[in-house]
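Fold it.
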Amino acid sequence: MPNGTNQIQIDGNRLWESIHSYAQIGATAKGGVKRLAFSSLDYQARDRFIDECVEMQMAISRDEIGNIFATMEGSEPDLPAVLVGSHLDSQPTGGKYDGALGVLTGLELAKSLYAAGKRPVRTLQLINFANEEGARFAPAMMGSGVFAGKLQLADMLAKTDSDGVSVQQAIALDTTGQYPARKERPIDSYFEIHIEQGPILEMESLPVGAVTGAQAQRWYDVTIIGSEAHAGPTPMIGRRDAGLGAAELSLAVEAIALEHGPDGRGTVGVLVPSPMSRNVIPGSAMLTIDTRHPDEDELGEMKQKLRVAADEIENRRGLSIDIKEIWHSPVTRFDAELVSRLEHFAAERQIGCRKIWSGAGHDAVYMASTGVPTVMVFVQTKDGISHNESESIKKEDAIAGCMVLCDAVLERLFRAED
């Protein structure tokens, strides 16, 4: 059996029930979840996670950006700790599994250790990272970014949502302020399990994937200024239509991504013309652009082409186009040894597994950026759909992913030597 005498019996049924029980917090009519970061529903999920950890006598701590840490102290507390984490916040129309699978897999591991009466050699620390989605407060992966020292705390606390509420104001409503601040301690490794959010594992009929790394991303906020005018009397020639400029730029984003295929990605997720009147030519427009590629140089070329396209549209249509890069996440490669161990444990359990690249960002990306040995497990997602209320995974795949991850975590937890 994996890990020999340290083998812990994971309760797959309990994990599955836990996932669907948490999904009732913020449940939507279409079967999804809405738990925006630092909302009352997000705090309900966080409080439940804390309560379950306290029942196992785990120590709770937090930090100033709202990350929650639950600690099961090892028999050798001076050894670097093993961390397992993800997030409980969701998109506005999110699914049950994105993020929650990772937090609750870690919780299942802790429950299994506690039920077996086994104290690990190294300390186990579970993490619920705050605001991973970035749906209410941009940027995404805020909690892990601050924890890793890649995002500045003061800057993130000042970020506001569409209603003008700041992160700092939202955090002030958090009941976890009663818990002590997390103490700095050396980290042995970081593990995370997540749904794939893509179709590859399903296409190959594989339940899990050992994630080798995450592609680079650049996010932009774009403001286009033209001139408002009456839709009837104003001839088509000579209009300074910011809405059409935004539409053209959106098509340019698609074309640039296709030029850098098959791995290039380009998405305009938000496009808002103004003043949004049926018979007024838009005088301004705002759009967001998300570009991704597993090759940093190619992503840089995509950035240059975006500016060239914007200049051409700007000059031809008489517009002003301001493109501001608000976030850059470089290519991240996960720890090769940990990837190999995931493959080993999957083979040992006769679970189908392949190495796979992540097309999305995750808290693990920031953890890896600090030099901490980091790895992820992906679980097959139906039709590759995520960030959607119809998001779905199979129970047997969730359990398989949990077992593979937990085998690898247990190996680190019961490893006495560095």
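Residues 95 and 391 are 5 Å apart (CA to CA).
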